[in-house]
Amino acid sequence: MIYLRSFKLSDYTNRNPNIYPDYVFKHVAGEVLLFDRITVLYGNNGSGKSTLLNVISNKLGISGAEKMTSYGHSIYAQRFLDLSSYQLGHDEQEHEIRQLPEGSRYMKSEDILYEIKKIQQSSVLREGIMYEQINKGMSKAQAAQYEATYAFKKKLENIQFSQEKYSNGETSMQFFEEYLLPGQLYLLDEPETSLSPANQIRMAEQINELARYFDSQFIIATHSPFVLGALHAKIYNLDAKPLQTAEWFELDNVQFFYRFFNKHKQLFERE
């Protein structure tokens, strides 16, 4: 399912080189991005891929969007948003989609790290155990008494011990397995954070499956060669002028990895 069909960037660029986000997108002003089930925004640091995700999420008004300001004011950013536009897709009966799924959201790499930290904090675990007991039928007074018992303390210690066995990367995989659901639009900013190459590919395969079989759509900012190579995605190269699509193996970051390992290939070919 394609919920977001296209996004047109503002064609107005302020002459002041410091106005945000005009200066970030001056080389792609007025460009139209056409989205697939999975679309990747590729670019090196400073290319504007993360900013573009935030622009789209602000324009769509979805959860996770961060307020945009320039010189401490929102007028410039709001002008950019006002002059940008988008088109929603069509459902299976070819009817125009009127609104995005309610669970659609923009997830940044720092959001994922924050969730990992929350999972590993005892205060959050404590609240989770109390909430679980109340859901099972305890009154608040009974739950407060339970919190003072040895059984509660032991349960808390057991959960903390089990979570300490997992790395940030493993917890990240747990996060994606729990939060990426069917039938949603997701904007993901560098979701490979904390993941090993093997887990980056696992995550990409999970995204492929959700997009192909479970009616989810993804717009992803990344420069990971493993994610780029594993996703079945349309790729926009934000480093290119003018904006253009590319195959994953043509991208500079992937080519850099290829040259590096090719230079040392004799080390891998030893018997």
What would your notes on this structure say?
- The protein folds into two domains: 4-112 and 180-268, P-loop containing nucleotide triphosphate hydrolases (Rossmann fold, 3-Layer(aba) Sandwich); 115-164.
- Helices cover 45% and strands 13% of the residues.
- It is built from eleven helices and nine strands.
- It has helices at 49-60, 75-83, 109-120, 122-135, 140-147, 150-164, 168-179, 197-213, 225-230, 252-263, 265-268, and strands spanning 4-8, 32-34, 38-42, 85-88, 105-107, 185-189, 217-221, 234-237, 244-245.
- Strands 5-6-7-3-8-9 form a six-stranded mixed beta sheet, with helices on both faces. A three-stranded antiparallel beta sheet has the order 2-1-4.
- α8 links the parallel β6 and β7 (217-221).
- The longest helix has 17 residues, at 197-213.
Can I get a quick summary?
It is a peripheral membrane protein. The protein has helices at 49-60, 75-83, 109-120, 122-135, 140-147, 150-164, 168-179, 197-213, 225-230, 252-263, 265-268; strands spanning 4-8, 32-34, 38-42, 85-88, 105-107, 185-189, 217-221, 234-237, 244-245.
